């Protein structure tokens, strides 16, 4: 298996277009055609992680945070970023980062936080828009069912908990085949009129190419008339943050103790409670101050995130318990997600969870 093959597996799981515009994901260092000897999975990629990868015979590091975030003008080893890149190149170790692709994943960073807390009824806090397309095509009515089935098998027509969704409308199509044409129906040089169905299905952007191939494969016409229409609709299964609920309300002291236990952080920073118990909780791994108002609008009793500034705590308005659990602490289980996925997909060599500690923050 080559690095490029691992890239395809990760692309299927968390597509690159799920990355936020500011982000830098994908293969950051290394040759995509290199044969993979082993994969080390880590939250961050620091020098100690590169050293661990070499020691364990792994020439590919798949991490959450990208070590190269801004442009590098030189690689001399002067900064910690340059030293990591230089060492990885010297050792022939590739580096691949996922970051916001997993932040936006329905079963990614924030779902795992909810799992640690035991929250049910999970839903995306900030659904991502512009992730859906509408495919419109025209097909003879006797071929419509076979075409729909082919499109559904390719992933089209899935909406939330529903599959095989489509809309059809009857109409009449016409065309005149040229002498070079090979018409499925009709005579060259003569106008042909056909009773057709206009077929519409929703398609996720990540499935567009697969569905397009299925359209061409299953459609009877030599030339397939079709349209791809971008939709501004929010995708309820892709986006930042997550909402969940406890089966029963929990008192605030017990809630804070649960967080400290489950995330292993010795110190929590939180706002004035404004309430006595917690039932509905919003979470967003990493720096999530931008979602405070969204958590309030969603009716959350508490919002767990990290990197909150002094004035952010005022934004709770005594309506929401803000809890800063630490950046590393909020995302620490992400490496387990990545490792679990790759271990299921790859059996030809080891996928190893890094033991190196990468949290830059210490507590006294």
Automatic annotation (TrEMBL):
Subunit details: Homohexamer.
Domain of life: Bacteria
Stretches assigned to coiled coil: none
Sorted UniProt keywords: Metal-binding
SUPFAM superfamilies for this protein: NIF3 (NGG1p interacting factor 3)-like (SSF102705)
Gene Ontology MF term list: metal ion binding
GO cellular component: cytoplasm
Protein name per the record: GTP cyclohydrolase 1 type 2 homolog
Pfam families: DUF34_NIF3
Family label: Belongs to the GTP cyclohydrolase I type 2/NIF3 family.
InterPro entries documented for this protein: DUF34/NIF3 (IPR002678), DUF34/NIF3_bac (IPR017221), DUF34/NIF3_sf (IPR036069), N-reg_PII/ATP_PRibTrfase_C (IPR015867)
Binding site residues for a divalent metal cation: 65, 103, 327, 331
């Amino acid at each position: 298996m080559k690095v490029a093959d691992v890239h395809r597996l990760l692309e299927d799981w968390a597509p690159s277009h799920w990355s936020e515009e500011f982000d830098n994901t994908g293969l950051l260092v290394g040759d995509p055609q290199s044969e993979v000897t082993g994969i080390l999975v880590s939250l961050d990629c620091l020098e100690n992680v590169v050293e661990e990868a070499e020691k364990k015979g792994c020439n590919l590091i798949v991490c959450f945070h990208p070590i190269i975030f801004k442009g590098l003008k030189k690689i001399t080893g002067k900064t910690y970023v340059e030293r990591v890149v230089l060492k990885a190149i010297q050792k022939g170790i590739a580096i691949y980062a996922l970051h916001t692709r997993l932040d936006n994943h329905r079963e990614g960073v924030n779902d795992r936080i909810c799992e640690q807390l035991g929250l049910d009824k999970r839903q995306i806090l900030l659904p991502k828009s512009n992730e859906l397309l509408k495919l419109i095509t025209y097909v003879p009515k006797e071929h419509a069912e076979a075409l729909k089935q082919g499109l559904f098998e390719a992933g089209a027509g899935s909406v939330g908990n529903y599959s095989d969704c489509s809309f059809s409308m009857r109409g009449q199509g016409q065309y005149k085949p040229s002498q070079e044409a090979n018409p499925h129906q009709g005579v060259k040089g003569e106008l042909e009129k056909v009773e057709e169905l206009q077929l519409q299905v929703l398609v996720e952007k990540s499935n567009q190419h697969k569905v397009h191939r299925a359209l061409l494969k299953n459609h009877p016409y030599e030339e397939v008339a079709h349209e791809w229409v971008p939709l501004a609709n929010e995708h309820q299964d892709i986006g930042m943050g997550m909402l969940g609920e406890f089966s029963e309300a929990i008192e605030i002291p017990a809630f804070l103790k649960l967080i400290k236990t489950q995330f292993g952080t010795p110190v929590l920073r939180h706002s004035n409670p404004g309430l006595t118990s917690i039932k509905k909780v919003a979470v967003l791994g990493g720096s999530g101050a931008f979602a405070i108002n969204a958590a309030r609008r969603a009716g959350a009793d508490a919002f767990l995130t990290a990197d909150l500034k002094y004035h952010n705590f005022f934004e709770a308005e005594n309506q929401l318990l803000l809890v800063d659990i630490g950046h590393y602490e909020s995302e620490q289980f992400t490496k387990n997600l990545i490792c679990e996925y790759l271990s299921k997909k790859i059996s030809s060599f080891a996928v190893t969870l890094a033991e190196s500690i990468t949290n830059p923050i210490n507590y006294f």
